[in-house]
């Protein structure tokens, strides 16, 4: 019984370490989003581009919705108001930022939690298929837990 409790404690400790890495990865990805948005907003002439990019980068931490929660309605409103050029430019900035984040996410997250990017990506895809939008968050968590279990099991064998 004591062995099981010790094993669970070790798994929880390793999982906590992985979750800390996941949060660090999310912060790095938010900074990446901030830089992309700053560049895009500056290029298309958005007023107060830095402040707006910062606010959107903070919201980008929310899984699935992220920056689209602000960028899409903003582009649609500008389109309805007749400012189609800015609307299309905002849409393009959003698409570029999303693509860059989607490409970088498995690599940054995998590096920070100590799991290969391919495994992180596979875990996230499977969790999204199983759990829908919440699976995007669960994918990294599942990868962290599986890594912790294997890590503790491997250490115990040595």
UniProtKB/TrEMBL annotation:
InterPro entries assigned: AI-2E-like
Localization: Membrane
Chief localisation class: membrane
Record-given protein name: AI-2E family transporter
Classification of source organism: Bacteria, Bacillati, Bacillota, Bacilli, Lactobacillales
Membrane spanning stretches: 29-47, 53-74, 86-104, 119-150
Family recorded in the similarity comment: Belongs to the autoinducer-2 exporter (AI-2E) (TC 2.A.86) family.
Its membrane topology: Multi-pass membrane protein
Position of the signal peptide: none
Keywords: Membrane, Transmembrane, Transmembrane helix
Organism: Carnobacterium antarcticum
